[in-house]
């Protein structure tokens, strides 16, 4: 279990407003997918991250992995596409349910950093849902894929104002020092990545995946705390 006091000014404002309104159920989460694009370097495994533009309505200025919500066109991916059945088995869902998330993952990575990933290269890592007090909520599958040979990741979307490759330990240290801002799912995913010596080992791992939804609690002293039951 992870207990994290809500200190981010914007997050705290939204949390307090939600509590003041009687802690309603919140909007229905939108389906989404994000991808940890990884590669090997002389200094260890690196992952491609982006800093969302400050003007974005959801998670402004946060460091994230490429991704986004599932679009209607993503539902057209055939469930028999190579890789979908295996991915679905690890996700614990039917192939027809996994297919739109796989399609969204492939599309978003190409749109946001110009890299074309094959569906069969996708691996499951986690499943997180945005807390109920957020006005924009997402039901997000965290996936992973190796950086395809002969391609180059670059910023190709107006949704971010910076991006690049970095090791998990570097990103986590920067977050701890307040140099970058990250949401709990990214921190959790990077902590897992940091335990692997190579990209191949990371991609071969099949962690237990269950749906994680952080909830807001209030300590006796009035402090709002985000509580997360980790897998």
Question: How would you portray this structure in words?
Answer:
It is a single chain. With 231 residues, this protein is α+β, with helices and mostly antiparallel strands. The protein has 6 helices and 11 strands. A hairpin with an 8-residue loop joins strand 6 and strand 7. Helix 2 crosses helix 3. The mean pLDDT is 90.
Tags for this model:
231 residues, alpha+beta, Nucleoside Triphosphate Pyrophosphohydrolase, 8-stranded mixed beta sheet, 3-stranded antiparallel beta sheet, 6 helices, 11 strands
Structure at a glance:
The protein is about 30% helix and about 30% strand. The protein is α+β, with helices and mostly antiparallel strands and about 230 residues long. The protein has one domain (about 25-210): Nucleoside Triphosphate Pyrophosphohydrolase (Alpha-Beta Complex).
Query: How many structural domains can be distinguished in the coordinates?
Result: 1
The CATH level-2 architecture is identified as: Alpha-Beta Complex
Assigned CATH superfamily: Nucleoside Triphosphate Pyrophosphohydrolase
> Which class in CATH terms?
Alpha Beta
The residue-averaged pLDDT reads 90
One letter per element, helices H and strands E, the order comes to EHEEEEHHEEEHHHEEE
CATH fold-level topology = Nucleoside Triphosphate Pyrophosphohydrolase
Query: What shape does the CA trace take?
Result: globular
Task: Report how far apart the termini are.
Answer: 9 Å
**Could you say which structural class the secondary elements and strand pairing correspond to?**
alpha+beta
Give the biggest sheet.
8 strands, mixed
Rg over C-alpha atoms, rounded to the nearest angstrom: 17 Å
β content, as a range? 25-35%
In helices, the fraction of residues equals 25-40%
Instruction: Note poorly predicted spans.
Output: none
Count every helix, treating DSSP H or I runs of 4 or more residues as helices: 6
Secondary structure: number of strands: 11
